[in-house]
Design a protein that fits this description.
The structure is a single chain. The protein has about 425 residues and is α/β, with parallel strands linked by helices. It has 3 domains: about 170 residues, Spo0b-associated Gtp-binding Protein, Chain: A; about 180 residues, P-loop containing nucleotide triphosphate hydrolases (Rossmann fold, 3-Layer(aba) Sandwich), CATH 3.40.50; about 70 residues, GTP-binding protein OBG, C-terminal domain (GMP Synthetase, Chain A, domain 3), CATH 3.30.300.350. The protein contains 10 helices and 18 strands. A 6-stranded mixed beta sheet has the order 10-11-9-12-13-14, with helices on both faces. The protein has a 5-stranded mixed beta sheet with strand order 3-1-8-5-6, with no helix packed on it. A hairpin with a 2-residue loop joins strand 17 and strand 18. The longest helix is centred in the middle third of the chain and has 15 residues. The radius of gyration is 32 Å and the shape is elongated.
C-alpha cells in the first residue's frame, strides 16, 4: 500500500521528579539532605530512512511516546533518563502542526534527523536547596511535564521535474520509456493513484529525477477528485512538463487542457505556476490530419511559444521526439539554481507549548468577589512537595506561580491587593 499522508500524536517523556530524603547513617545523627535529581524525559526524534517510500507505518498506529525519566533517589542518586523514540520516515516527509498546518520540520536535503519534541528536564532533589538558614529542606522540584502535539505527516516527492497532465494522456508510458520505473499502465482514468519516480540518464549529462504526478481534473486545487493528494507532490519540482493528447483521442482540446492545468496550479500555489514549463504534445503518430484543419501541434506552438513555453511533438510509445524533449529539460535545469525546494520551519513546539504544558484554571468566586480559586494538577503536586511554612519554600512556590504565568492571569481576572487566593485547602493574601 502507498500512503503519503498520516496524522499522529507524538509525546515526549516527562522529566523525573526530584527526591526528598536525608542522610541517615550510624554515628551521623544530623545528616543533611541527599535527595537526587530526576532523569530527563526522552525526546521524539524523526529520522530519514532511505529504505522507505511511504508513510504506511503510521496508518495503523496513532500515538507514539518517548519514555519518562525516572525520579531521583536517596544518596544523591540521579534518576535514569527516559529513552528517546526515533520515528523513521521517507525522505521528503514534511511534519506539520495538525491544526495550523505550519511546518515543524522538512525531512529532506541535509536534514536527516531532527528532534521535534524535547523531553522534560528532570527536577532537582532537595540536596540543592540546603542553605545556612534552611538546612533541612523538605521539598524538591517536580520534573518538567511531557509535551504532546498532533502532527500531520505529508510525503512530498523529491523530483527535479514534474510530469503533469489530465488522466490518460500517456504520462506513465513516457516515464516507463525514459526511466527504469515500472508504473502500472492501462487505458483507464486514474490508473496511477500515487506518484511514480524515475531517474533519467542522458549521455554526457548528469541526469535528473522525474515524477509522474497522477492525473489532474478541474477543481483539483479545491480538492476535487484526489486533487490535494496529487498537487502536493509538485511543490518541490523545479520544472513542469505538461503532457497533452495531441491526437484528442477522448475529444479533449490540448490547448484548453494546458490552460486548465495552469489554472489549477495557480489556484493551489501561485509560486508553482511561475516555474518553467515545457509542453509535450503526445500521440503525434495517431493524429488524423485533414485538409483545412490546423495541425494540433502547430496550434499549441502558436498559442504558447510566443510566451516562452516550448512545445515538443512526441510519441511516448515509439520514442519519437522524446530525446529532444529530455535534453531541452536538462539544459533548463542546468540554468536554474541548484538548491532544492526546502520548506522552512514555521512552528516551534517548545515555544508554542511553553504555557500549554501547565493546565490550570483561575476563577473568581461567585459569592465572594474578593476570593479567587486556582486549580490544576501540577499546582496540586507542587503544593505536596513544597514546605510553605519555611521562608525558602514559600519563596520557591511564589517563583513557580510567577514563572507559570499564574500571577499574571490573576491580575487579568481583576485581583486586587488584600484579596484571597485559594489553592487546594491553602489560602494566601495577595500582595504585589
Amino acid at each position: 500500500m502507498f500512503a503519503d499522508r498520516a496524522k499522529i500524536i507524538i509525546r515526549s517523556g516527562k522529566g523525573g521528579d526530584g527526591h526528598v530524603s536525608f542522610r541517615r547513617e550510624l554515628y551521623v545523627p544530623n545528616g543533611g539532605p541527599d535527595g537526587g535529581d530526576g532523569g530527563k524525559g526522552g525526546d521524539v526524534i524523526f529520522e530519514v530512512d532511505k529504505g522507505l517510500n511511504t508513510l504506511v507505518d503510521f496508518r495503523y498506529r496513532r500515538k507514539f511516546s518517548a519514555k519518562d525519566g525516572d525520579p531521583g533517589q536517596k544518596k544523591r542518586s540521579h534518576g535514569k533518563n527516559g529513552e528517546d523514540i526515533i520515528l523513521r520516515v521517507p525522505e521528503g516527509t514534511v511534519i506539520l502542526e495538525a491544526k495550523s498546518h505550519k511546518v515543524i520540520a522538512d525531512m529532506s536535503g541535509d536534514n536527516r534527523q531532527q528532534v521535534v519534541l524535547k523531553g522534560g528536564r528532570g527536577g532537582k532533589g532537595n540536596m540543592h536547596y540546603a542553605t545556612a538558614t534552611m538546612q533541612v529542606p523538605k521539598y524538591a522540584q517536580p520534573g518538567k511535564p511531557a509535551q504532546e502535539i498532533e502532527v500531520l505527516l505529508e510525503l512530498k516527492v523529491i523530483a527535479d521535474v514534474g510530469l503533469v497532465g489530465f488522466p490518460n494522456v500517456g504520462k506513465s508510458t513516457l516515464l516507463s520509456r525514459v526511466t527504469n520505473a515500472d508504473p502500472k499502465i492501462a487505458n483507464y482514468h486514474f490508473t496511477t493513484l500515487y506518484p511514480n519516480l524515475g531517474v533519467v540518464d542522458l549521455k554526457d549529462c548528469r541526469g535528473f529525477v522525474i515524477a509522474d504526478i497522477p492525473g489532474l481534473i478541474e477543481g483539483a486545487s479545491q480538492g476535487a477528485g484526489l486533487g490535494h493528494e496529487f498537487l502536493r507532490h509538485i511543490e518541490r519540482t523545479r520544472i513542469m512538463i505538461h503532457l497533452v493528447d495531441a491526437a484528442s483521442f477522448e475529444g479533449r482540446d490540448p490547448v484548453d487542457d494546458i490552460y486548465k492545468i495552469n489554472r489549477e496550479l495557480e489556484n493551489y500555489n501561485p509560486e508553482i505556476a511561475k516555474r518553467p514549463q515545457v509542453i509535450a504534445a503526445n500521440k503525434i503518430d495517431a493524429i488524423y490530419r485533414q485538409e483545412g484543419v490546423i495541425d494540433p501541434v502547430e496550434r499549441l506552438k502558436a498559442e504558447f511559444e510566443p510566451g516562452g513555453i516550448r512545445v515538443f511533438p512526441i510519441s511516448a510509445v515509439s520514442g519519437k521526439g522524446v530525446s529532444d524533449l529530455l535534453y531541452y529539460v536538462q539544459d533548463l535545469l542546468d540554468k536554474l539554481p541548484k538548491e532544492k525546494v526546502i520548506f522552512k520551519q514555521e512552528y516551534f513546539p517548545e515555544d508554542a507549548l511553553i504555557n500549554s504544558d501547565l493546565p490550570y484554571t483561575v476563577s473568581q468566586d461567585e459569592l465572594d468577589k474578593h476570593l479567587f480559586h486556582v486549580e490544576g494538577p501540577r499546582i496540586e503536586r507542587m503544593l505536596g512537595y513544597t514546605n510553605l511554612d519555611s521562608e525558602k519554600g514559600f519563596a520557591f512556590f511564589q517563583r513557580f506561580l510567577k514563572d507559570c504565568g499564574i500571577l499574571e492571569r490573576l491580575e487579568q481576572e481583576g485581583i486586587k491587593e488584600g484579596d484571597t487566593v485559594q489553592m487546594y485547602g491553602h489560602q494566601f493574601d495577595y500582595y504585589k
